[in-house]
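[AMINO ACID CHAIN]
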Amino acid sequence: MKIKIFSIALVTGMTIASALMAQEFLAKKEVRLGKKVADFALPDSSGKVHKLSDYRGKIVVIHFWSAECPFVVRYENRIKEITNLYKNKDVVVLGIDSNATESRGQISRAIQQRAINYTVLMDQDSKIADRFGAITTPHVYILNRKGRLLYEGAFDDQGWAARNPVKTSYVREVLDAMIAKKTVPFSETKTYGCTVKREKEKAS
């Protein structure tokens, strides 16, 4: 009984701590649905700098990425498939690694080993993650051709368990609607995955 009570207390304490931490960085969130996303510049693993404004006029899919998160690994083939399916429809996919725990070398190796077919940018001080209010990897944001945020959330409705069948691909349905110049069917969904490892979390 004591062990059970201790376990409940521990989980409750972790939940409260996580909620407080999330509350702290979500206070920095600047990116809002329906609003234009301010320009930013980040390097890729080779050091080349990419600006968000470089892709103005295209639909931009941003997803917060990780070199080691198992949820990102689970979704990698789906992300690559979306990149291939929509590359001739003026859609650009960008990964952003905002994890303070992941080095440039680690990121480069993961890109090569997993044959990533889209650009992965490095945000090692997590400033862009804070600006977007990114909570998990993956966490998806889709911008229209004018740079306005029209969707944020999960890739699909699979949830935590890989055995769950995918019934709705939020990203595909949003992209198809945007390409057809229709109202997007979803604007915000709940994310799941690994927590973005910010500097304070790394130190603690």
